[in-house]
Amino acid sequence: MNKPTLLILAAGIGSRYGGNKQIEGFGPHGETIIEYSIFDAIRAGFGKVVFIVRQEILETVKEIFLPKLEGKIEVDFVVQTLNSLVPEEYRAPDRKKPYGTGHAVLCAKEVINEPFAVINADDFYGKEAFEALGTFLKDDVKENLHCMVGYALKNVLSENGTVSRGVCETNEHFQLIGMTERTAIAREGDEIVSREENDPLVIAPDTPVSMNCWGFHPSFFEEADRIWKAFLPENKDNIKSEFYIPSVANTLIEEKKANIAILEGGKTWFGVTYPEDKPVVVAALKRLHEAGDYPDHLWE
Fold it and tell me: Does residue 265 carry a pLDDT above 90?
């Protein structure tokens, strides 16, 4: 089997952060968060990386990453636009942004033919996550068996504001039964509370959540495309509709078309949602370098 591919979702606008956090330096020598994910993926046996980007940052992303990755891993780029894969009759002139993570993944269907992982560009997932993904995608993945790296909710909060997380329900085999997107999650005293529309819900600290760290058999593209084609006519008048990966996963589970194993590689996570998160991330990366988890310069 071919080496797995790493698909990086880097087309987000970063409205709460106020800038292109995908290409901002956070490491001791200006390394982006993406670089740590790629470094860990290479160590875990991945053979290709595909960037999903907006047209306006495409050349900048190429300038940053191609010189560093030359000779280390195969690299490809895909542009996600507002109307990518959207037939003329479903295009909304008032829509402001693309349809979300599921849409972004589908944009890469022409350049990926092997098992692949999907991650966010602005999240640090930890080497254990890529080790777990690499093993699963090389040894266990099937047309009806995909995976997701699970993280305990208590470990994936921000001290600088609320977050949204995909809260998972699992069966006795630690497979995903379903996922519910919970918004406005934050610590309140000794509890973790989601105040979606001011209706408070207390969530157990060790509840597994999705940080958009997935592993898929390439047959996922065909199934996602089928669901996408049903989604478009149903949402043609909703300019804020989103086509998310968890929605596709939930549909496949409900239709009994696939199972999704939750892997235990979610040991370390940090990410950038708010500007105030940056010094926390910078300090965390510095500690990892000092501990020897990463060389002083990643690519030397």
Answer: no
